[in-house]
Amino acid sequence: MSFSYNIQNSSKIELLKKRYPDNRALILPLLWLAQKQESYIREDAMEHISEIVQLPYMNIYSVATFYSMFRLEKTKKRIVEVCRTLSCELNGSEDIKKHLDDNYSDNFEIIEVECMGACSGAPMCTLDGKYIENLTPQMIDEVLNAN
Amino acid sequence: MQTKIVSKNFEIPLSHTIDVALENGRYSSLEATFSKKPQEIIDIIKQSNLRGKGGGGAPAGGKWQLASDYEGTKYLVVNADESEPGTFKDRRILSLDPHLLIEGIIATCYAIGSHTSYIYVRGEYEEFSDITQSAIDEAYERNFLGSNAKYRVDITIHRGAGAYICGEKSALLESLEGKRGHPRLKPKSPEPEFYFGSPTLVNNVETIASVPFIVKNGADAYRAYGTEQSPGTLLFAISGNVNRPGVYEAEFGVSMIDYIQKLGGGVKNGKKLKAVIPGGASTPILPADMVESARLDYESLRGLGSSLGTGGMIVLDEDASMVKALKNLLRFYHHESCGQCTPCREGTSWVDKIMNKFVEKRATKEDLQILKSVSKTMNGKTICVFAPAASGVIDGFLKHFESEFLECIK
């Protein structure tokens, strides 16, 4: 079945159209809505977006592949993003990543990412976008097993 | 030592909700704002010498004037894309006092003659931008925003999607226009930015959040803080090997070592200080002896061969490996290069790969020369300052800690 936005997202799009001087500006919000709806951005979703904004498919694909948070392939349902940048590394992020890889990679997509703007809570990760800071292996066990 | 202008309400419970915000002074500057002509507001900002707090430190008033001087549709874009390693201050405003930001946006829009503002929030900050969105919704309900407000302003949050380069203002605007975040060529003479062809002011979150205090209390009240050339305060952030990492507002010009000890709680585990990256990952590192004499203002740090940047300090203790730290940062630069300019795209990849050899202690003397040479090539030969920043980082590590790199040569 080809991609279409659900009713809730369609009404959001109508509101968003009034907020920008040019429909091209909708590309990022439309990609986000497509990803939220299906958990990743399908090829036919990008085709659909290209029709909405009246720009060639290439433009949508070019944007979708530039930004690291857009997922163009299906991933595991739950996502853990662990920060590897300097303040996190100085506070033990390598051990945290290893603990996650060793124990949770079957059920969670474990992704190493660049700075998440949580340096005072180093080491940190996000679980489905929610920040979890001042991590210890024990804390990971508690949070991931509870969820 | 802590001076609270922007962070005054941070510790008040539910400070992000409108009733608590109103009880604690939010929106109280609007009366002063609307009692003046727009140009008068711009003049106050100029007199205050408010400097952009996103890293560059350019005077805000001049940028406001450039945007104001154009007729017709104008935009205010608030840069909330902070993605610089070591920097996490804007997040505090978005989540703890979003009404302060909204108040600042209303005053700024009024001053430059804009009715439309976008807050470009980094994609990772979804939960913090949701808090800001609910504050915006409240502000609409209470007629601080929208067509029933005294001065009509509409605010839209635009969510980025994970690209450090979109913190660069022209890349941010490209992204806001629905394109890849590629920085634009800079004009020869000063002019505003343009969003879909209309003049646009781009200011950092903290810059806009500083506006209500200045408009309400006057330029002199703001200049009473900080130094002559760097007036006011900054939400300095501190992280790394310290006891109390966090965001603590302080006047410009305070001693860096005092800040680290008194607010950051000193170096963790009783270790000695080895070095500090003073203002986010793109500012050249300072060894401990230089930290002793450094003051937290633009001029002092420039004099020491570094820069204040965003004021996000990363503290490294005596056990930290400088080779590993540089490797960490260069991997970041490699990952985040937008790829538009060859010296940056190829250079950041090259230096990242060379650093593997140093970390694994299998580098050669030639590798060190290549590292220096590629760094030189990246500097000043690209559209934006991303590659020069990476180059400055490399040069800083090699200038102060070259012996550690020589130890990794087989």
Automatic annotation (TrEMBL), chain A:
Keywords carried by this UniProt record: 2Fe-2S, Iron, Iron-sulfur, Metal-binding
Note on cofactor: Binds 1 [2Fe-2S] cluster.
One Gene Ontology molecular-function label: 2 iron, 2 sulfur cluster binding
Family from the record: Belongs to the complex I 24 kDa subunit family.
Gene3D superfamilies given in the database record: Glutaredoxin, NADH-quinone oxidoreductase subunit E
Cofactors that this protein relies on: [2Fe-2S] cluster
Protein name: NAD(P)H-dependent oxidoreductase subunit E
Pfam family, one: 2Fe-2S_thioredx
Organism annotation: Candidatus Sulfurimonas baltica
Residue numbers binding [2Fe-2S] cluster: C83, C88, C115, C119
InterPro entries: NuoE-like (IPR002023), NuoE_dom (IPR042128), NuoE_N (IPR041921), Thioredoxin-like_sf (IPR036249)
UniProtKB/TrEMBL annotation, chain B:
Cofactor names: [4Fe-4S] cluster; FMN
GO MF entry, a single one: metal ion binding
A biological process term (GO) from this entry: cellular respiration
The NADH-ubiquinone oxidoreductase 51kDa subunit iron-sulphur binding domain, residue ranges: 323-368
Superkingdom of the organism of origin: Bacteria
Alphabetized UniProt keyword annotations: 4Fe-4S, Flavoprotein, FMN, Iron, Iron-sulfur, Metal-binding
Family designation: Belongs to the complex I 51 kDa subunit family.
Name under which the protein is recorded: NADH-quinone oxidoreductase subunit NuoF
Organism: Candidatus Sulfurimonas baltica
Gene name linked to the record: nuoF
